[in-house]
Amino acid sequence: MVEVSNAELHVMQVLWKHSPQSAQEIVAQLQQEFDWHEKTIKTMLNRLTQKQAITFTKQGRSYLYSPAVSQQAYQQQASQSFVQRLFAGKVTPLVAHFAEKGKLSDSDIDELKSLIAKLEDKQ
Amino acid sequence: MVEVSNAELHVMQVLWKHSPQSAQEIVAQLQQEFDWHEKTIKTMLNRLTQKQAITFTKQGRSYLYSPAVSQQAYQQQASQSFVQRLFAGKVTPLVAHFAEKGKLSDSDIDELKSLIAKLEDKQ
DNA sequence: ATCTATTGATTACATATGTAATTCTTTGAG
DNA sequence: CTCAAAGAATTACATATGTAATCAATAGAT
Fold it and tell me: Taking the mean position of all CA atoms in its chain, how far away is CA B87?
């Protein structure tokens, strides 16, 4: 699996939102949110390319970058390994933590409920 | 918040399971699960101490280590920051990923259901 | 009293990560 | 055709992490 660092993940997220994008566009997006130097972002694009987390096609003198890993796939694997590490693979205790901290809005609860209803249907 | 690395987390887990424990005991526990050198584990105990993730009391020539951060607290904060980073703070999509992958057992679903029932009661 | 085994402390070294600066290439301006 | 601006590639450097080895202190054996 592709290992993406914390900072690199933000770059991925920009590309997941919309792709392909030029380095210039990516830099512009990220600088609205973070205080990162353009050079820093270029480095991350480079490392992500090496890790094969993103790809590019040449567009004249510059590149157009795209994710090589879908957000879905990444979220899925990261979630699983996280829950594995912290909760021995059980997702319920994690949800319980959110519940305890009052981090679940009414709509969250509704969504969870309908998700579960769907799961029960399947059986 | 205390930042604990991947490998260090395994040491924490041994201490969360039971504490206080001597380095010797901790090493024994971890070596059943991992192929780590005793020196490696000592290093991690040292780093965790510096990070104030664990504490110790002298017991003759050796130390007895204990967690300085509860498992609850750690799980809570790590879960929140994880869900924040990957799912913009929403826990439901994470659960949905587990569901899709068939990672939810019947008992998981039951637990989630009763958890939600409890939440709805509160309102 | 001296020596050795044990335990913690310090040092080591490679790779990863955050954060850039510098260099190399290429293309458009003049 | 020449040169400077712009983009990518390479290099840099500090801290974190994985993985130990070495050093130092001390308690128990002889």
Answer: 21
Going from the N-terminus, what domains does chain A have, and what CATH number goes with each? 6-67 (1.10.10.10), 91-123 (no CATH)
Q: Distance between terminal CA atoms of chain A?
A: 31
3-state secondary structure of A59: strand
A112's CB contacts (< 8 A; 6+ apart) are A95, A104, B91, B92, B95, B112, B116
Smallest CA-to-CA distance from A75 within A16, A116, A28 is with A16
Interface mutation vs chain A, best among B34, B91, B105, B109, most A CBs within 10 Å: B91
Measured to protein CB atoms, the chain C nucleotides within 7 Å are 6-12, 16-22, 26-28
B63 φ, ψ to 5°?
A: -115, 155
Cβ contact B76–A103 (<8 Å): no
pLDDT in tens, A7-62: 999 999 999 999 999 999 999 999 999 999 999 999 999 999 999 999 999 988 89
B88: nearest CA partner in chain A: A13
Half-sphere exposure of B113 (CA within 13 A, CB side): 13
- CA-CA distance, B114 to B121, in Å (whole number)? 11
Report field, pTM of the whole predicted structure over 0.80: yes
* DSSP assigned state of A79: H
ipTM attached to this prediction: 0.90
